[in-house]
Design a protein that fits this description.
This protein is about 10% helix and about 40% strand. The chain is mainly β. A hairpin with a 2-residue loop joins strand 10 and strand 11. It has 2 domains: about 130 residues, Immunoglobulin-like (Sandwich); about 120 residues, Sandwich (Immunoglobulin-like). The longest helix has 9 residues. The chain starts with 10 loop residues before the first helix and ends with a strand.
């Protein structure tokens, strides 16, 4: 969410990554406690605290469907983008790869996570994780234009094999939204009340979904303009989270409580062809609830 770039990341971000090690206790909550697995068919729950500029979260979690519940204790907007590092790669390898302009390495997989929310807010997202090395990132910039990742907002964690014979399953959804180039395709209209929304990236490139509750008289375009021009002044919408960047073919879900009003979806992921955020290709949608 909010003007992040998957390519050409500044060297300060690489430096922040290079300084991150899996034994950093100041950014880990209950890292020494053994993970607690939920009963069959119920996602494991992981609590994540986002602050200016870091995360507090367990260092190890079991594989399977995992519900990430993020609380923003900072003074800025934050997200908990999940990435998986494949082929035995580490954050130090990512830092090296990011030290020169170019595409995101193929061994970095974007697997969702709770998308951006404001100070004092909470968000959730469920992702199905396999054993391996992962990290939380915040790709949102401050008003000074510096990405939170570059300010040290990155935390590695490990997903271990689940001890139970049957891994936890994702929750049943009542609405499915497919992400395509460049649209949000909903299986049915959203209504007031609580929904579990399944998000599927059916497009040929990475996408995200940021859900917004619009201020009276405002449009999704107003939020996109506000975000792309430095986030000056009050936001024209309240971000409600959603699912952070998903690689093509991946999926996740999130829960949200809706009241009657005007809402919107928006995607800030840069296009794989021209580098422009997808919102500039029309990947914005406004809907009425109730």
């Amino acid at each position: 969410m909010l003007r992040f770039r998957l390519t050409g990341v500044v060297l300060t971000a690489a430096g922040a990554l290079a300084g991150c090690k899996s034994d950093r206790p100041s950014h880990q909550a209950d890292a020494s406690a053994p993970p607690v697995e939920s009963p069959k068919s119920t996602p494991n729950t992981v609590n994540v605290t986002a602050r200016d500029f870091g995360f507090d979260a367990p260092a190890k979690i079991p594989a399977g469907a995992t519900r990430f519940e993020m609380a923003n204790h900072g003074k800025e907007f934050h997200q908990a983008q999940l990435i998986r590092l494949e082929d035995g790669k580490t954050l130090q390898d990512l830092a090296k790869a990011m030290s020169t302009p170019g595409p995101t390495p193929s061994w970095v997989k974007f697997v969702g996570g709770p998308n951006g929310i404001g100070p004092g807010q909470t968000a959730n997202a469920t992702a199905t994780l396999t054993p391996g090395q992962y990290a939380y990132l915040c790709l949102i910039p401050s008003t000074d234009g510096v990405m939170h990742l570059a300010k040290g907002m990155v935390l590695p964690f490990e997903v271990t094999a689940a001890s139970s014979a049957v891994a936890a399953e994702s929750p049943a959804a009542d609405v499915t939204i497919k992400l395509v180039d460049y649209d949000f395709q909903s299986s049915q209209p959203l209504t007031p009340g609580r929904h579990t929304i399944r998000v599927e990236n059916a497009g040929p490139q990475a996408h995200e979904i940021v859900m917004l509750k619009l201020a009276p008289g405002k449009k999704v375009e107003d939020f996109g303009r506000w975000a792309e021009t430095g986030m000056k002044g009050p936001p024209p919408a309240e971000p409600l989270g959603g699912v952070a960047v998903l690689d093509k073919g991946d999926q996740g879900s999130f829960d949200v409580d809706l009241t009657p009003g005007e809402y919107g979806f928006i995607c800030f992921v840069p296009d794989s062809k021209d580098g422009k955020p997808h919102l500039f290709h029309g990947m914005m949608k406004q809907i009425k609830v109730g």
